[in-house]
Amino acid sequence: MILNFTNGYPDYIGYRQAFCGWGNGPASYVAGGDPTTLQNSRRMIDVLFGGMLSLSGNYIVDAIPSATGERQTWYAVWRYANGGAAGLAVTDVTSSGGSGMTAGTYNLTFSGGGGSGAAGTVTVSTSAVTAIKITNGGAGYTTPPSVSAATGGTPPTLTAVLGSAVGSQVVAGTNLSGETVQMGGFCGQW
Predict the structure, then answer these.
(1) How high does pLDDT run on average in the chain?
(2) Which of 18, 19, 138, 176 sits at 20 to 30 Å (Cα–Cα) from 156?
């Protein structure tokens, strides 16, 4: 996303500049966030304020830096702000049974349910599931999707649990080009 300065910005505060600007979302969202820059390539973002509501009210945009310190790459992470736009998400996966599995951590595979984007992992010992982690709840589910994992042996029975997708990161590939958000922060100049 390229942030376009609002009239009157940036404004100097000592050696730094405060700015306020707006930008449009990407045509195809990438999980982890949309790289964000300023319209003037000579200005580098030092701090970008997040938690901003898009003009449509459907998304909250968080600002996440790639590291600490000056002139880091900043990412706009788009999250669902209301249930109408988001539908339901996978909030948990329960397990039962399973035996003779190969110890390790495996990716969960989700299919069906009317939505998309759910992702996670399951960690197993040879006789039991020891942990399940949802890394992306996805969105748009109307019924729980089927869940499986290639654990070897007799895999456990995995069952998806649905809940509100509000706050979940937007599903990769979502077209957000029609969405606009206003953000501000501090920048320095080369």
Answers:
(1) 89
(2) 138
User: What DSSP string describes the chain?
Assistant: -EEEEPTT--EEETTEEEEEEEEEPPSS--TT-EEEEESSTTEEEEEE---EEPTTSSEEEEEEESSSSTT--EEEEEEE-SHHHH-EEEEEEEEE--BSPPSEEEE-EEE-TT-EEEEEEEEE-SSSEEEEEEEEEEE-BSSPPEEE---SSBPPEEEEEEEE-TTSBPPTT---TT-EEEEEEEEEE-
For the whole model, what pTM was predicted?
0.67
Q: Domain spans of the chain?
A: 2-83+172-189, 88-164
CATH architecture of structural domain 2-83+172-189: Sandwich (2.60)
Q: Mean of the pLDDT values across residues 82-103?
A: 83
Q: What is the pLDDT of residues 39-71, one digit of tens each?
A: 888 888 999 998 999 998 889 999 999 888 777
